[in-house]
Amino acid sequence: ELQLVESGGGLVQPGGSLRLSCAASGFSFRFADMSWVRQAPGKGVEWVSTISGGGILSYRDSVKGRFTISRDNARNTLYLQMNSLKPGDTAMYHCAFRTDRGRGTQVTVSS
Q1: pLDDT per residue over 43-88, tens digit each?
Q2: How high is the pLDDT of residue 99?
Q3: What is the C-alpha to C-alpha distance for residues 102 and 2, in angstroms, rounded to an integer?
Q4: Would strands 10-12 and 18-25 be described as parallel, antiparallel, or unpaired?
Q5: pLDDT at residue 81 in the model
Q6: End-to-end CA distance of the chain
Q7: SS3 call for 103
Q8: What phi-psi label fits residue 55: left (phi over 0), alpha (psi between -120 and 50 degrees) or beta?
Q9: In the beta sheet, which residues pair with residue 76?
Q10: 38 forms bridges with which residues in the sheet?
Q11: Which distant-in-sequence residues (6+ apart) come within 8 Å of 52 by Cβ?
């Protein structure tokens, strides 16, 4: 059974940092294209970043230079390092594989 379990969210002040993790199981993580998506209250799902099975990285423009996606294939874990956080980054963050998503971890950026 495929499972994606996110952790690491929380409340942080503007300019702060968080590191999200996603523990994956039930599929061949090493070869999988993995993504982070987010959903703010009252808004649709928004793609944030993808790391391919071959390590190619891509980001939405609004997070370039602030967020870094990475993976540890030995631990079947996906990460998202988020720096210089802004109130506009407030959302539920989910890791995603194809059409599957985890339950998410809440990130709130507020003073």
Answers
A1: 999 999 999 999 999 999 999 999 999 999 999 999 999 999 999 9
A2: 94
A3: 10
A4: unpaired
A5: 98
A6: 40
A7: coil
A8: left
A9: none
A10: 46, 93
A11: 33
> What is the SS3 assignment for 3-59?
EEEEECCEEECCCCCEEEEEEEECCCHHHCCEEEEEECCCCCEEEEEEECCCCCEEE
The rounded distance, in Å, linking the Cα atoms of 75 and 57 is 19
d(CA 67, CA 59) in angstroms, rounded, equals: 8
Between strands 100-101 and 77-82, the pairing is unpaired
Chain mean pLDDT for the chain? 97
The torsion angles phi and psi of 4, rounded to 5 degrees, stand at: -130, 120
Confidence of residue 18 (pLDDT cuts 50, 70, 90): very high
